[in-house]
Amino acid sequence: MTNEEQYIDALLETDQVLEQIRTATAAQGMPDIAVAPGYGRLLTMLVAMNNVTKALEIGALGGYSGVCIARGLQQGGSLTSLELLPQYAEAAKRNVTQAGFGDCISYLVGDAKLSLEQLVERNEKFQFFFIDADKEGYPAYLEYAIQLAEPGAVIVADNILLRGRTINEHKQGPAVQAVRGFNQTIANDPRLQSTLLPGYDGLAIARVLAK
Ligand SMILES: C[S@@+](CC[C@H](N)C(=O)[O-])C[C@H]1O[C@@H](n2cnc3c(N)ncnc32)[C@H](O)[C@@H]1O
């Protein structure tokens, strides 16, 4: 973390509910890879500012970002969270229930691409997306999000810098190449209005323009 990020993190009041989830996530044997606190707050703000009632998250881990998104939802709103590993989805469910959001978050377990295909078949629509799963899947997840988006929907994706690997020309692995392609698309696709933030591990934010 840079000095600037440390400075800003220190300004933000410790969020006991989210810190409890971070601790529980580690205790449940999951890696410490939840979204950064500053970006978690941004998720809540973007969901609230866009009056979101239906949100979709790809990559649940222990439920940290799930709570950030759920906090911004309109009354009666819901979050669908896609998670590959059943034990992670179960732990996330326990953690978000303890945080008071069990009723508005549901989990679809398995490879996100299969879950996304089912959501397309059911003609489901969402107003907010958070992409935060396997990096090789990012280009496909973006296309699914655009397909599942209501006009004006917001798409957010974390870790677009891959701890520096994205801008290191010696790194040419499949995850790096996929994220580079994803970043190019999100920056230039005429279906989107977008920006890319370099703080923490990089965050992309896009708005789906009316089709
Ligand atoms: C970076 S973590 C998610 C962090 C979480 N969004 C948060 O901020 O609290 C990535 C998650 O994606 C899940 N994942 C990896 N590949 C996946 C796939 N193909 N489909 C669904 N989930 C996947 C992992 O099991 C892991 O829980």
Automatic annotation (TrEMBL):
GO biological process assignments: methylation
Residues that span the membrane, as ranges: none
Enzyme nomenclature, EC number: 2.1.1.-
Sample GO molecular function, one term: methyltransferase activity
InterPro entries in alphabetical order: Cation-dep_OMT, SAM-dependent_MTases_sf, SAM_O-MeTrfase
Domain of life: Bacteria
One Pfam match: Methyltransf_3
Keywords: Methyltransferase, S-adenosyl-L-methionine, Transferase
UniProt cross-references to PANTHER family, sorted A to Z: CAFFEOYL-COA O-METHYLTRANSFERASE 3-RELATED, O-METHYLTRANSFERASE-RELATED
Protein name: O-methyltransferase
Record organism: Paenibacillus septentrionalis
